[in-house]
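step: validate -> pass
step: tokenize input -> pass
step: predict -> running
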Amino acid sequence: MAVGIFDSGLGGLTVLDAVTRRLPEVPIVYLGDNAHTPYGVRDADDIYDLTTAGVARLFEAGCDLVILACNTASAAALRRMQEGWVPSDKRVLGVFVPLIEALTERHWGDNSPPREVAVKHVALFATPATVRSRAFQRELAFRAIGVDVEAQACGGVVDAIEEGDMILAEALVRSHVEALKRKMPKPDAAVLGCTHYPLVEDVFREALGEGVSVYSQPALVAESLADYLERRPEMRGGGDEAGFLTTGDPASVSNKATQFLRRKIAFEAA
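step: predict -> pass
step: emit ->
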């Protein structure tokens, strides 16, 4: 019954936390590729190779369904994986689609043609690799027309969060929001396109100001996963034990993860 969650580091723990609250009966195996974080500064081939290696390990752990709780991996590797790598009896899903469906007010599985939606000006905050991929804009175009997207590559934010330097992370967020506003002074909505960013969501909201709807991923992904498993119960894999795996040093990652989620987390070597 286990479901896998993969991330380049600790950011995916925000998704895991939301999923375990929404689906407490589903065992989750989390794999953080902490030895190679951050992904946001890597090229597409490197991200693909690292992501497939991590997902393969989760398949070995009994997960038939894996969520890429890493926007960079979702942007740079997911489509290529789905087209030529994922076995027919497995599924790998990303985190963009639930976010875009919420933004455009379309239900999961709505495959009708793209149409005009309420939001017209969207600010996207993401890693440099996610911004370069234009995956968000591509997925949005499948569902909506007439939406102007201005993307801001938020260099340094993930590194600061992973290192626990929240003062630096908050300062960087304010700087990136200012840079975005110079390009798009009045966005209708802002998308936090990285699963690390919920940890500084209040800083994004304050910097953006009133009147901007902020879309963050964890709860949206958890709700979409619940809907998916209700429709596809066979995708609850053969594994039945939850766990935390890392390619990094388990003791160090466990300490950081415990601070990250404010509860005891014990990682094992992947």
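step: describe -> The two ends are 20 Å apart (CA to CA).
step: cleanup -> pass
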